[in-house]
Amino acid sequence: MKVLHLASFDGNIGDNANHSGFRPWFARMAGRKVEWIDLEIREYYWKERKFDESFVALTAGFDALVIGGGNYFELWVDRSATGTSIDIAPEIFAQIKIPIFFNALGCDEGQGVSESSIRKFTLFLERLVSNPQYLVTVRNDGAMKTLRKYVPLALSESVHTIPDGGFFLEFTESEAPYLKPSKRRIGINLASDMAEIRFKNFGADGYVKFCDEFAKMLGTLAARDPDAQFLFFPHIFRDLTIVADVIARLDDRLRRTRVFSAPYVSGPEGAKHLFGLYRKCQLFLGMRFHANVCAIGMGVPAIGLCNYPQIDFLYEELNYPGGRISVREPGFTNPLLEMIDSFNRKTPSDERAGLMRAIARSRELFEPSLAAWLRNNALVGYP
After folding, report:
1. Which residues are CB-contacts of 341 (< 8 A; sequence separation ≥ 6)?
2. What is the pTM of this model?
3. What is the DSSP string of 307-367?
4. By CB distance 3.0 to 4.6 Å, which of 106, 120, 198, 262 could disulfide with 307?
5. Chain segment 366-379, per-residue pLDDT in tens
6. Where are the domains of the chain?
């Protein structure tokens, strides 16, 4: 089976994690070997390609089209024909004849919602759920909660929630001879994009104040635990800024002897190395969605650093509220240190295993719907 995969492959490294966990499962469900052809969605954002007749012609050479995962059901893209990042006009979309699977998309209101976008998105979703050619799924980060808020209930009930593919990574531990041995290596992922949302409760110069407090928190943690080592993980290029700004605020001896950073990488091979380094951590502090998803999926104890609603929603959907903490406003240091101490004291392997069993079960519950769609669209390789 030849599948065209429209998604991000050279952007946020978390998207590569999603694809790596998704593709083997999809092929297994189809019972066929799949030849995947990557189509970078950013080429459409960069105006290098257009969602016009050329896109229709491109799809004609494939057995199926997969869109996502990714946060493509955003509801602020007012200029889009669908009100989302998937800017395909109805008359163009109607010309696509192959089956289309919308894979674990985010539906995010964090950057705002417009009435125009809701109206166009509702019409787009009506087309999708009324035709067996399409199968629509959203990821477990509050996307369904957002859908139910803005579209008719009958539409949202025809959309499926599935776990992000990043939960099912099978990357092995990466070689990293530059890291010093450590029994308590703490992985850290920080994000500084959407600063007006993430740091607004810190007041004027909120980003600066956050960096000040986070650096002081790490200094306190390092003093309490002389064996602790800190490994930063940038997922996108903007993460490099906040990593550098936090490290610059640390004591010089600490940052020279016990602080490391994973490389900024992109693409499938970059993802293998970066997420393979997650396995070298005994604890992970993550702001980004996939930082939390991949840590949980690989069995690394994770604490979600919440300053964007998506992370709160993720832990709510996982029914694991004890794994997150708000860093939206000043004064997060002591609660965060207490949570880290709690994680260091307990041996949560059974708890993590139970969490992953529940995540795997939620995907299994969707599999009959996927199997039926594959069968109805003549995509399966077995009776």
Report:
1. none
2. 0.93
3. SSHHHHHHHHHTT-GGGEEE-SSS--HHHHHHHHHHHHHS-THHHHHHHHHHHHHHHHHHH
4. 198
5. 999 999 999 999 99
6. 2-167+358-376, 184-346
